[in-house]
Specification:
homodimer, 417 residues, Alpha-Beta Plaits, Maf protein, 5-stranded mixed β-sheet, globular
């Protein structure tokens, strides 16, 4: 079974926006055993879109379009689909009712331009969009299928997950494909690959191992294909466990879980709390921890202390320490740990201070030098990392390194499964 | 002049890697007045690549391929180009010499697999790659051109900038294209479209307006094409100014600037400082502000106060206020402003408290209810937002709304241009 992804929008072709939708869609389809043959961006021109729809359907059974469904003039996907299918647009009352409701909740009135969103090609099966105004649509075209989705990633994902993927699975039951993902933090791809060399060489033909690195975390994904579903799952389970054992000291979970949610689960289970004291990461660790629903159960707060005064006043870092060793020092992050545990009345703390760049580096402490500490009332562990890519990556990488250290401390002290 | 971008690689079609190369290439070509008609991903299959080359060249004068030039088995772009052109591969001594040099510098010896990289299709004009082992290539195909580049973004960019773009400019002196982007925050796409309806209807044929929304911010992009460059730029400048006036109360800048960097510029210019007091956004506003290089000039710190105790202790919110009105209340965010200005010794403050969900909602304060305040020692402005998508979007949206409010307060008090 093949799919063709067709993102619509000039913004893609002039390079203003990167098409992350196609990546996400391809991954989901792949999990259903649907091959993506092409992703193919097309601009906001009626004839081009109509032509691309035809080309896509000549190449694949499933055509997934994103974008061009909004209320403005450059949103012309619906007209293109209608013309391709040779049907008219009709006014969909239910969509109009929903849009008015959304506006009412915001204390506003839906205007004329919102009505444009309610004209849909005849034959459309509506795919509910509960997170935005533009509905998704499903069209049967002979034995083939056209799916049209909004370009806003959150809305596209919602409709895919809740509506389109289940329908596709029903419509095109495929050859079984299955995956197991083991999540690791604190080791690089090369280090893991060395540990897993024998394991990988001994994998059966039908199973592949992929390394998916992202800023200090690596997902190890085993993918298997073919045969009957039951034995495919059995062998994947056994191989995933085997692999997990080999790299166990870096593993923090399975599937799509994040390190911050793994940390949250352990803290909740043990009724423990956490807080962060951040300098160079500027709140990113705190943001990651609180991005998990229900994190208020275990997250008490953070102090982001950029200025020296803030470090002294709120984290009780000694002025002497700052003078003698500087803010980017093991001594400073150690004091930040005691400071944050007291300030936020927390059981566990993360502290971090470094030079994210591009400015601020010195000969002894070049850009990228970052000190991290994680601690409880029993123990504080520190580590210096020192690699410099650019500010955004340094911040992201340091945040993940800090969370990996926190995970290891929790493993040691609380022994999560 | 049209270009067709053809990224090669299974990793794109299974959704493992997002194709950022095409975005970057499209932006560069666009600046040269070359239209990108399609970006079209193809997997690592010989016949598919050959077919895609033919399709691309039927649609555009310039075909730019990325990926598939490495030393491993799945890197088959060169063979596909050779077969498409009907030529043989030859061993390129100069590339082999370069690869051996690179290995020697690393204290290693280049192996057999590296030799594979040195077989190039006949007729290739070499595009030097000084940052990696795989050279770029340029092929003339009648009046058309095929450019093949490595998939590693840094290598691709190097070769494009140093070699391919100058050659393209020489080869195809093009029709001018230009853009003006006006950045807005605080208004939705529909609201802006209503304000800009007349303006948009009166735009000349050669100029298009596109709305690019993202969580409470909308970029308004005017694109113009054709004619002579000088008059094209003149009309775009005039139309952009006209548009800016119509939606002026939402405008925070031009081009690719972020709201947080616009805020930073004004603060730096006036030697003012900022701090945030965050509850539901958990540090995201702080992270955004500190993602800007040099933000330590004006950002002093933040207090992320999830727990009631943290709000009382560090932000001096009165226990009475929390009891009587709750943490998600105008009264609370007002007190958080005075609290954070004092705690972090800042001139400007942002405070935020709300229910990001999915849990924690009540009948009076459903999930999505978020109070925001922005203030200085002269003035505090508050606003309640109340829309619920999901936790991540609520947090992102609220952070942007808070930054938009901050921008408006700065406009009022500091009058940035």
């Amino acid at each position: 079974m093949n799919a063709f992804i067709l993102p619509v929008g000039d913004e893609l072709l002039i390079g203003q926006v990167t098409d992350t939708n196609s990546t996400w869609i391809a991954r989901q389809l792949n999990l259903l055993g649907i091959n993506v043959r092409h992703a193919f961006s097309v601009g906001d021109t009626h004839e081009e879109i109509v032509k691309a729809i035809g080309y896509g359907l000549s190449q694949a059974e499933i055509l997934i379009m994103t974008g061009g469904l909004g209320p403005t003039k450059d949103d012309i996907t619906k007209k293109a689909i209608a013309d391709f299918l040779g049907v008219e647009l009709f006014f969909h009352e239910e969509t109009w009712r929903k849009i008015r409701q959304i506006y009412e909740r915001l204390g506003k009135t839906a205007g004329e331009s919102s009505r444009i969103q309610c004209f849909l090609p005849q034959g459309a099966k509506i795919l509910n969009n509960d997170v935005g105004t533009a509905p998704g649509m499903w069209f049967n075209y002979g034995q083939k299928v056209i799916i049209s989705l909004p370009g806003v990633p959150s809305e596209m994902k919602y409709i895919m997950e809740m509506e389109a993927l289940p329908l596709l699975q029903e419509h095109f039951p495929g050859e079984p494909i299955a995956h197991r993902t083991v999540l690791t933090a604190g080791a690089g791809e090369t280090e893991l690959a060395a540990l897993l060399e024998d394991f990988e060489n001994n994998l059966p033909e039908s199973i592949k191992l992929a390394y998916l690195p992202a800023y200090g975390q690596v997902r190890l994904r085993l993918s298997g294909k073919g045969g009957d579903e039951k034995s495919l799952n059995a062998i994947l389970d056994s191989k995933a466990s085997e692999m997990e054992k080999i790299v166990s000291r870096f593993v923090f979970g399975r599937g799509e879980k994040s390190l911050e949610s793994a940390i949250g689960e352990v803290l909740r289970e043990h009724k423990m709390t956490i807080a962060t004291a951040e300098s160079c990461t500027g709140g990113l660790i705190s943001h990651k921890l609180t991005s998990i629903p229900g994190s208020s159960d275990y997250f008490t707060g953070s102090i982001i202390a950029y200025a020296y005064e803030a470090k002294i006043k709120h984290l009780k870092v000694k002025p002497d320490t700052l003078e003698q060793f500087g803010a980017v020092s093991e001594e400073c992050v150690r004091e930040m740990i005691s400071g944050i545990l007291a300030a936020m009345d927390a059981d566990y703390g993360i502290s971090i201070s470094g030079i994210a760049g591009p400015g601020g580096g010195t000969e002894n402490k070049p850009v990228g030098t970052i000190w991290i500490a994680v601690g409880s009332k029993y123990k504080t562990v520190t580590r210096k990392i020192g690699f410099n890519r650019n500010r955004a990556i340094n911040i992201e990488y340091a945040s993940n390194a800090a969370l990996a250290m926190m995970w290891n401390l929790l493993k040691e002290e609380l022994r999560p499964k």
